[in-house]
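Why does residue order matter? Because the sequence determines the fold. Keep that principle in mind as you read this record.
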Amino acid sequence: MRQHGLFVIAALCALHASAEQELLFLTEDSPPFNMFEGNKVAGISTQILEEALHRTGIKAQFDIVPWARALALSHSQPQTCVYSAVRTPEREKKYGFKWIGPLVDEKIVLMALADSPIKLKKIADAKPYRVGGYVADARGDYIESQGVKVDRAPSDTMNLPKLVARRIDLWVTGSISGLYMAAREGQKRNVKIVISGGEPGDTQLWLACNTSVSNDVIEKLNTAVKNLTADGTANKFTAPYY
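Structure:
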């Protein structure tokens, strides 16, 4: 009877440990890092995280929600993480996340229409122009830190149509994601990168987790991400989008 009781306790502990590792990964529609393909969340960062989960045996569900909501839920809701997030000092202080990564690195760029006469020697030179970004985006925060006003849309997918319609002069986006979105909409030849900027801390994209996620899970996922970066797996996921 005692042995049976010990077995039940051990089984319950195992179930509890397993439940602790059931995570929710929230993201936004920001191709090619995170996006819907059919009914599935896909993209470079998603593939990297799926591979890390596979290597560690940790379970997680993926979902796409507006970016500001993803950040808020990951801060307030246990066992919840958000990606692809730039790791800024402001977010470190405000949210207290536990971080996994970096998953991907891309430059912050200001993009214009191909026929635009705009030339910039530094980001701050964009002050006279209408610059489009989106709510809660760290790239827009960086541009604003250089003294440039950013017109924030609810979603980044709204900015390319605004640029094409000449409602904005410049679009703050990523060196990979901006060109990918332009290509997807048949606009790649109609846009160009005017200038790039940002330090590694401004351009690296991470998975940011609620403080309730155990340190053991964080360590395992960090090790897996580093290993799949070192063995070239991450590059295989990224290469098709360049």
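Confidence is low (pLDDT under 50) at residues 1-19.
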